[in-house]
Amino acid sequence: MRLGVFGGTFDPIHNAHLFVAESARMMEGLDGVLFVPTNRHHYREKPHATAVDRCAMILGAIESNPAFSLDETELRDDATGYTADLLPTLAQKYPDAAFTFVIGADSLASTNWVRFDEVLQGLERFAIAPRAGVQSDSLARVIAAVPPPLRERVSMLNLPEIPQSASLIRTLIAQGRSVRYLVPESVWQYIVAQHLYGCQLHA
Q1: CA distances from residue 103 to 17, 96, 106, 121, 129 in whole angstroms, order as listed
Q2: What topology is assigned to 2-162 in CATH?
């Protein structure tokens, strides 16, 4: 079994997340994709929505795709937030799986990854989705630092650059604007119903 691991805060999950996950599933020949939300924020600000709300939005967003599932491993109290610690735990949980980590180019280029070699050793593939504004030379520098045998596990997904981000969605909501159709309908309805991110609009 070949599983994709798509981690992040998903604050909130949006349509670009789903597009990248489905594209990675098809391009990398994956049997499924795990959406793995985290509470830790070593590299980013603390999530604005609670883990309960973010999981509810993920479940609503992925409900129509049987290849997608939610994994709450990174929400446990003992989770460190580091991918190098996550992968062995997932390997125990899914002993028959080979893992492909799915990540946006912005996260790779702007982050000083801890134990990156160890991460790659625990993966079959490391698939990078292009993001608008991320220079190719920034990615090249990160990849060039990886030992050659492990470098072969890194691949770029042939996708258009997508400018959409969770921070943009939160900004639009804070401005009193609608994000309907930037997020799945179930997520939009949930944000409105729970008044997340300061939303005062009506569905």
Answers
A1: 10, 22, 8, 16, 6
A2: Rossmann fold (3.40.50)
pLDDT digits (tens, 9 = 90+) for 6-20: 999 999 999 999 999
46: CB partners within 8 A, 6+ apart:
none
Q: Which residues contact 200 (CB under 8 A, 6 or more apart)?
A: 176
**Which residue type occupies 187?**
V
C-alpha distances (whole Å) from 127 to each of 45, 52, 105, 179 are 24, 28, 9, 28
The answer, yes or no, to whether residue 165 has pLDDT greater than 70, is yes
Helix (H, G, I), strand (E, B) or coil at 160: coil
Tokens of 47: 């999530």
Give the per-residue pLDDT at 132: 74
User: 71 Cβ partners below 8 Å, 6+ apart?
Assistant: 34, 35, 36, 90, 93
Rounded-to-integer distance, Cα 80 and Cα 91, Å = 16
Q: How many CB atoms lie within 10 A of CB 61?
A: 26
**What's the average model confidence in pLDDT over 178-198?**
96
Give the ranges where 45-165 is alpha helix by DSSP (H): 51-62, 83-93, 105-109, 116-121, 136-144, 148-151
- Measured CA to CA, the distance from residue 49 to residue 52 in angstroms comes to 8
Alpha helices in 63-200 (DSSP H): 83-93, 105-109, 116-121, 136-144, 148-151, 166-174, 185-194
| Residue 170 CB neighbours (<10 A) | 20
Residue 25's contacts (CB-CB under 8 Å, 6 or more residues apart) are 4, 32, 33, 67
